[in-house]
Backbone:
């Protein structure tokens, strides 16, 4: 990605319909100069605090304050390592604050931080918030959920869960703050192509909105509209948790600007390094000693050393060739590098999603009329007519944009009065197939 390449971005953080406090936090830091962009790139962070009441709020707030400051002030040249160090600093800040007050003891937060620049994309991640990449019609989950369910699935023990464990399957296994040190996943660097969309979100979104819906909404709508609609869908489907969404879209390159060079992984340099050289030197020395002993007719010792270290030399040579081949393997950088169970999905067709949102609009309109919500019905009618016209012309992205306006009218003016009411059974607003 180049400095001249624009980035469209937005964020929304919402308390949801069932919580009193918003324990989520997010921050976006766009590089202010070309030099800063070359060093660090743009930074996007989502944190989901835990601990109840003000404790979770404090943990996530400390994360989004400490991480950007440390990252941009760091002297570390490697962007990925600087990002990892910034997350470690956030962990230390939260742990220290928690240790100073019994009420804050073991407070914690998830943290997903993404940096976007000439180096490509790096992600530092702890917890079960997520980072996605949407490229054309495909959505790739670039982070691993540090939850009991995902950890058991990775170890192949998910089927062995007893009923009590199944109830706790979403308990997270890793977070910032509770411990003095924390293991941080560092993903990337991934290349950035024009049109790529990156989504960071807390579990308040993914509990109610499916990956294929996220893909289509983030791809078809501008980041600001997409963030708002995703959060509103989560609320309309129950809003059981705080919900935070950050979206960044890499725009097209200016005509006179060449594309950036693909990012290079450190381990892909094709060099075996000093440990291999030392191992060869030691084995070769003992092999030569065995041959020398044979020349001086020390048959038993010479034969043993020659056979043993000759075999070791052959084995070491074969291992070195395999390692060298692995380091020089050319991979398809357009494919997400991951191990199971990172996920890939195809975006829901725009026509299907528009039909689903249209059914949801009917439900909301009926509720608004029955309960007397204060809605600008003229604006509603204009947007609805524009959506219907776009559907007839099969311009589904435009139709989705107009329906997003309609949903926003309802959510701004009336839907909050239903805060304590669960969504109707079988409502078409759920993320399953239409009935």
Residues:
């Amino acid at each position: 990605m180049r400095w001249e390449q624009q980035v469209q971005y937005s964020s929304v953080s919402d308390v949801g319909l069932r919580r009193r406090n918003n324990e989520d936090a997010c921050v976006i830091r766009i590089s202010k100069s070309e030099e800063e962009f070359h060093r660090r790139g743009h930074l996007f962070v989502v944190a989901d605090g835990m601990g109840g009441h003000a404790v979770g709020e404090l943990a996530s707030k400390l994360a989004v304050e400490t991480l950007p400051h440390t990252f941009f002030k760091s002297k570390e040249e490697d962007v990925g390592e600087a990002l990892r160090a910034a997350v470690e600093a956030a962990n230390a800040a939260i742990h220290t604050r928690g240790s100073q007050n019994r009420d804050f003891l073991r407070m914690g937060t998830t943290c997903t931080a993404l940096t976007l620049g000439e180096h490509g994309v790096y992600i530092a991640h702890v917890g079960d918030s997520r980072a996605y990449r949407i490229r054309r019609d495909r959505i790739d989950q670039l982070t691993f959920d540090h939850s009991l369910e995902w950890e058991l699935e990775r170890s192949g023990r998910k089927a062995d869960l007893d009923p009590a464990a199944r109830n706790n399957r979403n308990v997270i296994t890793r977070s910032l703050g509770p411990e003095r040190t924390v293991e941080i996943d560092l993903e990337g660097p991934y290349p950035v192509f024009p049109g790529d969309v990156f989504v960071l979100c807390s579990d308040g979104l993914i509990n109610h909105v499916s990956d294929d819906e996220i893909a289509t909404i983030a791809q078809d709508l501008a980041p600001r509209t997409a963030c708002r609609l995703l959060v509103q869908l989560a609320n309309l489907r129950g809003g059981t948790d705080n919900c935070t969404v950050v979206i960044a879209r890499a725009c097209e390159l200016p005509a006179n600007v060449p594309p950036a060079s693909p990012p290079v992984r450190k381990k892909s340099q094709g060099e075996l390094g000093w440990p291999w050289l030392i191992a060869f030197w030691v084995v070769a020395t003992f092999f030569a000693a065995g041959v020398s002993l044979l020349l001086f007719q020390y048959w038993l010792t010479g034969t043993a050393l020659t056979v043993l270290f000759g075999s070791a030399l052959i084995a070491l040579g074969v291992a070195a060739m395999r390692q060298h081949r692995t380091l020089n393997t050319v991979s398809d950088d357009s494919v997400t590098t991951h191990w199971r169970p990172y996920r890939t999905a195809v975006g829901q067709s725009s026509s299907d999603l528009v039909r689903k949102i249209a059914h949801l609009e009917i439900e909301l309109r009926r509720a608004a009329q029955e309960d007397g919500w204060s809605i600008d019905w003229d604006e509603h009618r204009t947007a609805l007519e524009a959506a219907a016209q776009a559907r007839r012309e099969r311009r589904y992205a435009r139709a989705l944009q107009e329906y997003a306006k309609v949903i926003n009218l309802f959510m701004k003016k009336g839907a909050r009065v239903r805060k304590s009411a669960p969504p109707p059974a079988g409502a078409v607003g759920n993320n399953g197939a239409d009935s």
